[in-house]
Write a structure and sequence with these properties.
6-stranded antiparallel sheet; 30% strand; 3-stranded antiparallel sheet; 231 residues
Length: 231
Amino acid sequence: LDSGVKVLRDRVVRVERNERNDKNISVLHTATGAQLSSSWFIDASGSATCLLAREFNLSAVQFGPPKVALWTYIPVTDLGEGTTLYMEASRAEYLDWIWEIPISTNVVSVGYATTGAAMKAKRAQGLSVEDIFRQQLKKFPRFEPLLQMPAQSDIHVTSYRCRVHAGAAGPNWLIAGEAASMVDPITANGVTAALRHAAEASALIVKYRKRGRLPLSARASYSGQIGRAHV
């Protein structure tokens, strides 16, 4: 913002490509009717949107089982110094785990991650989402007092599967963060990966800005590094 960057809260509804090269983006059209033209574009739209991956019909490699995460926000008086993970030794296909992440000075995000198959089996037993969530938290003494406190929100649920898109860079665009790859949160490198993507994408734009397009070697290198992060 200090450098003069303007933030526009809007939604892209159409990507206009260059007439001479349909892999080159020229304008983004938004829901409010704005038309955003630029020499370069970085898509950091997140795993749910994947704007340019959808636009260019990029293939994706999925790995690991489908997973489900449940979480809520709980007020606390003894805030930890950082993210804490809780888990039990298990020989199952996927290691279930619970997270506790400080959100503010007196609120933590508490969540539970497991496989979709495990969640389906528990639901088939007649357990509600809240039952499953509380059942897992009760396994750890840390959460006994927290379970007595009213949550600041309902229990949120999302499903996901790890994947990485191929060809995450084009002539004048790059895809970064979870729009490019969705990593398993248990590895704790999702934010680190997103920041690395941003740094590398920005560096490539600076390096090739006078040329006006990324060479094939630079595109392949960027996409390859995103893919290798999952090996």
